[in-house]
Amino acid sequence: MAHPVHKDFTKILNFEMRLLEPLSSSFVEEDNSFDITGEAITYPGFIPHIGDEFFLEVGDGKIGEFKINNVTPTSYRQGKYHKVNFEILNYVTAQIVERLDAGTRDTVYFDKNVYVGEGDYVFIKENSYLQLHELKKRHKELIQFYVNKFYSEAWESFLRPDGIYDPYVVEFLRQRLSIRDSRRRPSQLYTRLADYHNSIWYLFTDSEYNQTLDGVNGTVHVNYLQADALSTDLNALINRYFLLLGEGNNQTSYVFSSHFYSENTPSMTPLEKIVHTYITKRTINVADALELISEYRTMSVDDQFYFIPILIELVVVSIDAIKN
Q1: Which DSSP string do the residues of 237-285 spell out, in sequence order?
Q2: Is residue 104 a contact partner of residue 4, using CB atoms and an 8 Å limit?
Q3: Mean pLDDT value across residues 33-42
Q4: Nearest 5 degrees, angle CA 81-CA 84-CA 87?
């Protein structure tokens, strides 16, 4: 047996193959043991090699250490996959695990939710795998928190803490949230929303290739929807206050500060910097994003209303970054 330092293994956790038939076992009289063999196919894109080892449960709570002894390349539709034959070497013991770990260079993870079945096979590094699971947990958590805190049953939509309706963030969330995310999906109460494409939210939902803030209106003012004989917005918004982009009475910067819209990077907040980098460069630092995402409960309620939807977007962007 070669000394462990001369081994150079890559450990793949959670990897799956599909058995073509149940494992075959035969009794070996010489040593009163069972010879266990099997045949399986791998996912398209993964290339196994003769000599590769893996663990597989064989029944009665036992786990076998198996070795691939034959590889047959084949094809299925337009994806390539491989058929492998394998045989048992030993039943797994602590010593076997220690030996293999001593020769392991890298540890990666297989995740069916990331695998797309086409092109090159991609495994997730250990740190990215942990980040991916944290992001998925945060995605569900953020949505549930936001719905519980800001959804108004009376309005059947999201409402700011001060009672003012924001049709832009509602439109963004209508496009981002599915029935699988929440059974309470917001209604768009302002049916004359014609300038959504000028809002910061548009850069996330519809403008995938836009890498500039040109055309984005960074200010809003409060308006009042007066009921009259020609009103078409016959819903909870009638005779209520709502936001409109652009100049007006009590004009304020929208979602982010004026430093963000003037692209004054040194004066931006950490959240503004990471969003600005994503919009202008389509890149994201997943670790930085996770750190910001984890702080949502410490925000003021006003910041939560606008920043949690941004954080939901950062989760989606970060997950895509890991997958790609």
Answers
A1: TTT-EEEEESS-TT-EE-SS-HHHHTT-GGGS-HHHHHHHHHHHHS---
A2: no
A3: 87
A4: 160
One-letter identity of residue 154 = A
Bigger pLDDT: 261 vs 32: 261
pLDDT, tens only, 273-296: 999 999 998 899 999 999 999 999
Please say whether the beta carbons of 269 and 310 come within 8 A: no
Percent of the chain predicted with pLDDT > 70? 87
For residues 204 and 216, is the Cβ–Cβ distance under 8 A?
Answer: no
Q: Is the dihedral of CA 96, 98, 99, 103 positive or negative?
A: positive
Residue 142 pLDDT greater than 80, yes or no: yes
Torsion of CA 16, 18, 22, 24, to 10 degrees: -70
What's CA 296's distance to the chain center, in Å? 18
Domains with residue ranges and CATH for the chain = 4-122 (2.40.30), 133-323 (no CATH)
CA dihedral sign of residues 308, 314, 315, 316: positive
Query: What is the model's pLDDT at position 231?
Result: 57
Write the pLDDT tens digit of every residue in 15-35: 888 898 888 888 776 766 778
DSSP strand pairing (241-245 vs 219-224): antiparallel
3-state SS, one letter per residue, for 225-244: CCCCCCCCCCCCCCCCEEEE
Of 72-81, 122-131, 185-194, least confident by mean pLDDT is 72-81
Q: Which long-range contacts (CB under 8 A, 24 or more apart) does 52-59 make?
A: 53/89, 53/100, 54/15, 54/86, 55/92, 58/23, 58/88, 58/91
> Using CA atoms, how far apart are residues 147 and 150, in angstroms rounded to an integer?
6
> What distance in Å separates the CA atoms of residue 107 and residue 142, rounded to the nearest whole number?
30
Calpha distance 165→43 (Å, rounded): 49
* Residue whose C-alpha is closest to residue 63's, from 92, 24, 38, 98: 92
Give the amino acid at 16. Answer: E
